[in-house]
């Protein structure tokens, strides 16, 4: 082995050690930025991220864990596929449902950042939660929102937040709504659903990737007015969400 090769290995080891320390002890914003750098170091970096997933809280909706999982998942390398299959075959948070709905397909779409498909599936799941009438008509009455089980609504929201670095989700939209004094006309442009007093046209004018404004997804049927959104934001799921998530 040449001196140059030895120096390269030592530099790589030092770089890995520094990155690992910064990642493990860093703040959330820094951790999110360091994940791609660890991925770029290939197997040694992947091992750091896999260990991180195993030693962090599986019940916590941690957007750093969400990004780590998503990055490892999309690698499609034998070592990462085997790791995910062995340790996280159903994802990294519980997919609880009081109605026995299967949230694995939604989890899969969001992990793969297929946000438009995930949005479509989310609407279908909300119809299932609302009941047979909503499934038949393919949209939800505002009076049906009260029927949504807290557990299911939180599971859907948790998945959206987990796999979007905290940018998307009903609770994110609700927080923005509260920040503008519960004023829906102010909320719509803030989340990109209205521009110059014109409604954003579905689907081509919406943004289906991480460059979208905070709170842009998932979509509600805003063209039927604010009543569905108002009912959803008033759902008791969010009082429990606040207590459980600090």
UniProtKB/TrEMBL annotation:
Pfam families: GUN4, GUN4_N. It comes from the Bacteria. Residues 11-89 form the GUN4 N-terminal ARM-like repeat domain. Residues 97-236 form the GUN4-like domain. This is GUN4-like. One of its GO terms (cellular component) is outer membrane-bounded periplasmic space. One of its GO terms (molecular function) is tetrapyrrole binding.
